């Protein structure tokens, strides 16, 4: 089972690398975190800042908006397809 790390732990690990200048490999070894995991945290932090780690089951605001728009788009496509079928049925009569 993958380990869970809280926001404070992630931020502190990132600060060790970015603020204190420690090597990523050293921080990984000291904290028992995988290299790719810490590199991903750093990348997400650089890209999204404070919104990088929203928490359990939550999405960043941009991701949440995108998911809602994708869901709405899918509903609209289904409604369009239903209308096309209805038009075809009524046109043939």
How is the CATH topology of the largest domain named? Arc Repressor Mutant, subunit A
Order of helices and strands: HHHH
Number of strands: 0
Low-pLDDT windows of residues:
none
Helix fraction, binned, reads over 70%
* Whole-number count of domains: 2
Instruction: Report the radius of gyration as a whole number of Å.
Output: 23 Å
Morphology = rod-shaped
Helix/strand class: mainly alpha
The CATH architecture term of the largest domain is Orthogonal Bundle
First-residue to last-residue Cα separation: 60 Å
Describe this structure in words.
This protein is an all-alpha fold. Helix content is 71%, strand content 0%. The model has no long low-confidence stretch (mean pLDDT 87). The protein is built from 4 helices and no strands.
């Amino acid at each position: 089972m993958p380990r869970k790390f809280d926001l404070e732990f992630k931020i502190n690990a990132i600060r060790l690398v970015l603020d204190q200048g420690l090597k990523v490999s050293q921080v990984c070894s000291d904290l028992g975190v995988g290299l790719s995991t810490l590199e991903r945290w750093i990348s997400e932090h650089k890209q999204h800042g404070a919104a990088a780690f929203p928490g359990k089951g939550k999405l960043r605001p941009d991701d949440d908006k995108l998911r809602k728009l994708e869901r709405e788009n899918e509903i609209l496509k289904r409604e369009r397809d239903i209308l096309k079928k209805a038009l075809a049925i009524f046109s043939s009569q």
